[in-house]
């Protein structure tokens, strides 16, 4: 795959990786450098914004939840300085509502962890209307339900009573669902 990546990369190969998982960032940076990217890394929103403002990257991979805030702030900073940048939002807390928010502010794609360097590279380099290949492990019906409930919860500004009313569900049942981890 690295040979085909080099062919798709343009003259600007800058890639900004923003994630607070230090070991993940190091591994991903090495893998992306092998694919021909010129990699910069940051572990906080503040550092990511500063790097984006100083040297707007052609490509970026940004974690949604960082120790000092929301990765979407970094995406906005990149978009302010460079509207042709290809940005992939990466998170371990995949929810449809956050994916929609990420795409609305300019992210090219949204991937849930664990995503490997091949998945990330494919998302960064997919052009135009091309759809990425279907996932190897699509969401289960339970996961789709969980995603829908969380989307409505986010749209109701995290108001449990209002969300329960809109979903025609008992408030305590909803609280139990929200307290659990997402199904696979």
Automatic annotation (TrEMBL):
PROSITE patterns: RESPONSE_REGULATORY. CDD domains: REC_RegA-like (cd17563). It comes from the Bacteria. Keywords: Activator, DNA-binding, Phosphoprotein, Transcription, Transcription regulation, Two-component regulatory system. GO terms for molecular function: DNA binding. The modification 4-aspartylphosphate is found at residue 63. This is Photosynthetic apparatus regulatory protein RegA. Member of the two-component regulatory system RegB/RegA. Involved in transactivating anaerobic expression of the photosynthetic apparatus. It is a transcriptional regulator that is responsible for activating expression of the puf, puh, and puc operons in response to a decrease in oxygen tension. Pfam families: Response_reg. One of its GO terms (biological process) is phosphorelay signal transduction system. Residues 14-128 form the Response regulatory domain.
